[in-house]
């Protein structure tokens, strides 16, 4: 009755829902009145409201201090609040205590997870991070729960810089190794001959607060200091006697490299096999920034290959690192346990800075160091929402175009509007552009209060210009133009005739669009990522580029070409839903007639700008029904399916039109929505032995289930599985991962570093639990590298069913009943699935 044709995937990451050898796209014919029932769920939209007023009955709010805080900060807090200092709490203890607290203060050692916010029952109003990095705080959860997060970004700068210098000297003179050797009863004077610092070149990567303090001190040691920071002011560097150079020059000429940049998508593993290969043989490396800026495995290789002579590390990708870590145990590596900020003085300073911010926030003041403060009051947002989104995206776009070593010093923003100047408050728009420009490149968080200050602190001068145009004053703005002067660009055509990087945007049908790059008119919606190409205008260019992207199944959402004149210079802007691979970009660059190309990433607005949530929750009796299906729509990517998604469902023949039966057909891509995974993709014999979805155990797919939160920034390893403490007797578990926070669902392999099961995690699950239904909120249950072995472990005994691509947004961890209804198609061993939870 049903014919099934299945897309063959060429992307190894994506496990198939269907037998891969079958041809592309499948169609199924149903007879009778088959209707696809959709739940009556209505997406609810709500706006973020962050308030911070104290609400304790005794009159005094309670502040839980979960890690050691300097005395001065404690006394400040005690003047205003009841202070509970409880250190070394287990996650469970923290969750229990938190419901009695209005504020929480931590350093980097306490994970403030979603569970903490959920357990607070709405009482927790402020989280204070006594330091800079807020990697340990689940910001998205904080924002969703209306909890303000504040940090202390300046008080430990000098301490971190001093620790960098301490590690530099200790490494060069083998202090730690020699100390251990003497204590072991040895006296090895020849073994520990060191190297001198004077006269050597040190490259500071990241010339911000800490980097510039390290530079000053290195100068005092007689070192030649160079720095790389594409966004730092060259004047400020010159004032300290430091030359700003390109990344290539910095890594190739340095005897010592010291890292001081924040961990961002652009700096993630910025030191890797490729960059190590370009370094001077015998280079020495110091890292007091964040572990993730170094590819730690590549560092071990570079040490063993003799490229890197020594390294000194205060920070690690995983903290604490594993005891048997090759990196930590390497004899030419000096390590400290994240001590950068740990001086008496810095901790006193940080304690005061954070106590003031927390008390201020509890009094209802908006702290300048607020990390997730709302940018836009709700009433302003109603009218300005698409424009503030446009402003931030133009800022993000402009900064990604900057190259060279002169730094971003001046920014000019022009607003074209038919409204009178005092009828349009541009403060919010200016703050959003500043946010877009600064947040992707620094450890600063920009809010309405601190935007101008943060810009000034970074030496960034912002000028604004109003252009009054004729037209209806109903729309607040016609366009926004952002110009950065005196810089080079990674995409030369972004430089306008007058010499600045120039981008301009408009709001069309409520959606921000990029309308000008340099002197070229384009028209592309500012969503996903954008590829810019400069070319000689000629027929066939769109097809050539589209073909390269299509081969990789990168979905093109928009394309537009702006040109100076027919067959002259043109700029093509291509909006893509998925990030293309380096190879594809290289191929695009190699197309004859394309003169330059550049990928601009992450145009999405920061999650803290507006906390709009949608969820599919329906009340039912006294309980609730949650639809946790990612529905299959024609907008979903198809990951290698040639025909992709066609018509979703249509009536080929209907009784209404004279047929004796209703005949429906539909065509789907694979692996894009919620589905039962296809074992045959990883396990040939399943298919040979006649396994298909009709033989799936509905008992496995329906019944009591647990939704659990796994730690973010980590794959599901044996250790993680163990820490979840899932009792024996639990048969169905849905795992909530980073995907739910970051909506990584359709970003392909780029997200798989921290969303899936590792082999050991799968093995642990099989060996130590009774779980038979493994649900995950991502496209594949397994981490990319481990795809095949992990699936083999899960599927080996034909007992475990994998449901992938669940939509767990807004679902709190806890007990539910799960009901998964697979679309049972003959001959297919995986299939789209409708899943709901009841509570
Ligand atoms: N080990 C520890 O205990 C401590 C670590 N830190 C860490 O040190 C780092 C620096 O902190 P701050 O100086 O306060 O931050 P900052 O924001 O003042 O400076 C960071 C600098 O990095 C630059 N940068 C961004 N992307 C870059 C890129 N791709 N290449 C080169 N430079 C780039 C920025 O332009 C900025 O100037 C952060 O990661 C922070 O978390 C800070 C304090 C203590
Ligand atoms: O401030 C930072 O970013 C740090 O890394 C310092 O962390 P700590 O407060 O010492 O746990």
UniProtKB/TrEMBL annotation:
Entry's Gene Ontology molecular function annotations: arylformamidase activity; NAD binding; phosphoglycerate dehydrogenase activity
Top class in the EC scheme: oxidoreductase
Catalytic reaction list: (2R)-3-phosphoglycerate + NAD(+) = 3-phosphooxypyruvate + NADH + H(+)
Transmembrane segments: none
Pathway entry: Amino-acid biosynthesis; L-serine biosynthesis; L-serine from 3-phospho-D-glycerate: step 1/3
Localization: Plastid, Chloroplast; Secreted, Extracellular space, Extracellular matrix
One BP annotation, GO: L-serine biosynthetic process
Pfam families associated with the record: 2-Hacid_dh, 2-Hacid_dh_C, ACT, Cyclase, PGDH_inter
ACT domain location: 530-606
Gene Ontology CC, one term: chloroplast stroma
UniProt keyword list: Amino-acid biosynthesis, Chloroplast, Extracellular matrix, NAD, Oxidoreductase, Plastid, Secreted, Serine biosynthesis, Transit peptide
EC number: 1.1.1.95
PANTHER family found in the cross-reference section: D-3-PHOSPHOGLYCERATE DEHYDROGENASE 3, CHLOROPLASTIC, FORMATE DEHYDROGENASE 1
Family: Belongs to the Cyclase 1 superfamily.
Protein name: D-3-phosphoglycerate dehydrogenase
């Amino acid at each position: 009755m049903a014919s099934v044709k299945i897309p063959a995937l060429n992307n190894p990451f994506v496990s198939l829902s269907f037998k891969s050898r079958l041809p592309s796209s499948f169609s199924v014919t149903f007879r009778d009145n088959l209707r696809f029932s959709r739940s009556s769920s209505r997406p609810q939209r709500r706006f973020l409201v962050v308030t911070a007023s104290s609400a304790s009955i005794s009159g005094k709010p309670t502040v839980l201090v979960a890690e050691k805080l300097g005395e001065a900060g404690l006394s400040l807090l005690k003047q205003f609040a009841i202070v509970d200092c409880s250190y070394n709490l287990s996650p469970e203890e923290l969750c229990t205590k938190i419901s009695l607290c209005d504020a929480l203060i931590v350093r980097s050692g306490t994970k403030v997870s979603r569970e903490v916010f959920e357990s607070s029952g709405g009482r927790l109003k402020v989280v204070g991070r006594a330091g800079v990095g807020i990697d340990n705080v689940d910001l998205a959860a904080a924002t969703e729960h209306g909890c303000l997060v504040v940090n202390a970004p300046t008080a430990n700068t000098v301490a971190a810089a001093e620790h960098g210098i301490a590690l530099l000297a200790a490494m060069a003179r083998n202090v730690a190794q020699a100390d251990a050797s003497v204590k072991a009863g040895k006296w090895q004077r020849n073994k520990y001959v060191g190297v001198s610092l004077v006269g050597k070149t040190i490259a500071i990567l990241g010339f911000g607060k800490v980097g510039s303090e390290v530079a000053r001190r290195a100068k005092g040691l007689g070192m030649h200091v160079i720095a790389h920071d594409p966004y730092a002011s060259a004047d400020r560097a010159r004032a300290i006697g430091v030359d700003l150079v390109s990344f290539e020059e910095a890594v190739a000429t340095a005897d010592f490299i010291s890292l001081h940049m924040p961990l961002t998508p652009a700096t993630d593993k910025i030191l890797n096999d490729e960059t190590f290969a370009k370094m001077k043989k015998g280079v020495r490396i110091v890292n007091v920034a964040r572990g993730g800026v170094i590819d730690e495995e590549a560092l071990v290789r570079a040490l063993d290959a003799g490229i890197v002579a020594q390294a000194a590390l205060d920070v690690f990708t995983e903290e604490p690192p594993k005891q048997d870590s090759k990196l930590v145990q390497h004899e030419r590596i000096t390590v400290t346990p994240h001590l950068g900020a740990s001086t008496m003085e810095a901790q006193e300073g940080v304690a005061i800075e954070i106590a003031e911010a927390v008390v201020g926030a509890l009094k209802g003041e908006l702290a300048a160091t607020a990390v997730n403060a709302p940018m836009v009051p709700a009433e302003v947002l109603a009218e300005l929402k698409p424009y503030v989104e446009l402003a931030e995206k133009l800022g993000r776009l402009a900064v990604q175009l900057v190259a060279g070593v002169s730094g971003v010093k001046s920014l000019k923003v022009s607003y074209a509007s038919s409204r009178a100047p005092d009828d349009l408050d541009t403060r919010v728009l200016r703050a959003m552009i500043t946010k877009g420009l600064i947040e992707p490149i620094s450890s600063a968080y920009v809010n309405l209060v601190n935007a101008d200050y943060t810009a000034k602190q970074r030496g960034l001068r912002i000028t604004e210009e109003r252009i009054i145009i004729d037209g209806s004053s109903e729309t607040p703005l016609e366009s926004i133009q952002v110009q950065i002067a005196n810089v080079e660009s990674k995409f030369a055509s972004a430089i306008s005739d007058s010499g600045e990087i120039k981008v301009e945007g408009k709001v069309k049908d409520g959606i921000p669009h990029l309308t000008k790059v340099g002197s070229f008119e384009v028209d592309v919606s500012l969503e996903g990522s954008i590829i810019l190409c400069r070319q000689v205008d000629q027929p066939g260019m769109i097809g050539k580029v589209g073909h390269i992207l299509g081969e990789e199944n990168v979905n093109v959402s928009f394309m537009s070409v702006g040109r100076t004149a027919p067959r002259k210079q043109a700029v093509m802007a291509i909006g893509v839903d998925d990030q293309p691979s380096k190879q594809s970009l290289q191929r695009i660059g190699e197309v004859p007639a394309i003169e330059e190309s550049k990928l601009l990433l992450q145009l999405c607005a920061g999650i803290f700008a507006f906390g709009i949530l949608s969820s599919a929750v329906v009340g039912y009796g006294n309980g609730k029904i949650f639809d946790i299906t990612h529905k299959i729509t024609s907008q979903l990517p198809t990951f290698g399916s040639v025909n992709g998604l066609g018509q979703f469902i249509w009536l080929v023949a209907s009784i209404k039109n004279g047929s004796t039966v209703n005949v429906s057909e539909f065509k789907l891509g694979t692996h894009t929505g919620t589905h039962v995974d296809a074992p045959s993709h990883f396990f040939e014999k399943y298919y040979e032995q006649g396994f298909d979805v009709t033989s799936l155990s509905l008992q496995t797919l329906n019944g009591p289930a647990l939704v659990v939160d796994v730690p973010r920034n980590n794959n599901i390893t044996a250790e993680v599985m163990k820490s979840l403490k899932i009792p024996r007797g639990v048969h169905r578990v849905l795992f909530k991962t980073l995907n739910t926070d970051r909506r990584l669902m359709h970003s392909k392999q780029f997200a798989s570093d921290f969303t899936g099961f590792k082999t050991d995690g799968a093995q642990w699950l099989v060996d130590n639990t009774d779980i038979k239904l493994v649900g995950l909120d991502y496209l594949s249950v397994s981490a990319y590298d481990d795809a095949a072995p992990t699936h083999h472990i899960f599927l080996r005994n034909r007992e475990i069913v994998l449901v992938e691509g669940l939509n767990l947004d807004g679902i709190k961890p806890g007990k539910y009943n799960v009901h998964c209804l697979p679309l049972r198609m003959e001959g297919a061993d995986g299939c789209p699935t409708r899943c709901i939870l009841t509570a």
